[in-house]
Amino acid sequence: MIKTSTTLLAVIGDPIVHSLSPLMQNWMINYFKINAAYVAFHVKSNQLEQCVNGVKAFNMGGLNVTAPHKEQILNFVDQKSREVELLHAANTLKNENGTITAFVTDPFGFIESLGKNQSRFAGANVLMFGAGGAAKSVAYALSQLGIDKLIITDIFEEKAVQLKELAKNAFKISRVETIKIKTNNLNDYITDSQILINATAVGMHPNAAKSVLDDYSAISKQHYIYDLIYNPGHTALMLNAQKKGATVQNGLDMLLFQGLQSLRIWMNEDYELKIPALNELKSIMKKELGIYE
Q1: What is the pTM of this model?
Q2: What gap in Å lies between CA 20 and CA 8, rounded to an integer?
Q3: Which of 102, 221, 227, 241 qualifies as a cystine partner to 245, CB 3.0-4.6 A?
Q4: Is the peptide bond before 107 cis (omega within 30 degrees of 0)?
């Protein structure tokens, strides 16, 4: 029940109508018995300063920030977390007595989503498709997981080079390389890598037949394939890699855990989602997405 003491939280974006955050966050708010409510606001770029001032005026607990505002919102915050300083983007704002601090929860969501597979990353070679915002967050997470080498490929080679420099100089990954998206010896890089990550939108609904890979001959049971896409639940990349014996995972857990991290920041509590609760929430999210497996 909403009271005068209820903390108001929200997600902002442009557009925002398809956001899953209200469903996800309100489920967790109910599960953890938090006195809060979570809504969505359609905010345009020229309204961001007014929006942040509104958070202060209404004494809101904070915001989630989604596309296209994750970088521009930084012009209107008072403080930034270390990760925000490195990534130059934020997806979570916390209001404490009128002081707005920016955080980014995606790297933490990626790491927590790995579960027992975290151990695969120490000393591993990782081949990552994509060099956009999601890839930046994942690259930072990889630096925290202690990988040995990162190979980046993107349709826009300049973006791949920029991420390479960021990963080496800011994230301190000592061995970083870029390759062309259609390089002739891609299979050599796949063979030399233990982990493949798709941080692009290739294969996302409704283009589920598409994949960043055309040839799966180098994929084996030694590989771990992480696709940040969560709709469809099994992308073409995942399905074909699974046939070769690889371990595969989609991005739904990352979505949930980055949202949980936001809730921890706002409420200053170390909430934990046990497996039964996590599975229940995943089922609700899949139903909302129309994913039936």
Answers
A1: 0.95
A2: 17
A3: 221
A4: no
- Do 133 and 165 touch, CB atoms closer than 8 A? no
Place 182 in a pLDDT band, splitting at 50, 70 and 90. confident
Domain positions in the chain are: 7-104+254-289, 108-250
Out of 3, 44, 56, 70, which one is annotated catalytic? Answer: 70
Largest CA distance in the chain: 63
* Mean pLDDT, rounded, for 159-176: 97
Residue 90 CB neighbour total at 10 angstroms: 25
Q: How many residues does the chain have?
A: 293
Q: Is 70 a catalytic residue?
A: yes
- Helices 157-169, 133-145: axis angle to 10 degrees equals 30
201 neighbors 229 (Cβ within 8 angstroms): yes
- Whole-angstrom CA distances from 258 to 25, 164, 177 are 11, 24, 28
Classify residue 254 by burial, with Cβ atoms within 10 Å: 0-12, 13-18, 19+: buried
Using left for φ > 0, alpha for ψ between -120 and 50, and beta otherwise, residue 115 falls in: left
> Which fold does the domain 108-250 belong to in CATH?
Rossmann fold (3.40.50)
Segment 85-134, tens digit of pLDDT: 999 999 999 999 999 999 999 999 999 999 999 999 999 999 999 999 99
* Nearest in space to 127 (alpha carbons), one of 180, 201, 184: 180
7-104+254-289 CATH fold: Rossmann fold (3.40.50)
Topology agreement, domain 7-104+254-289 and domain 108-250: yes
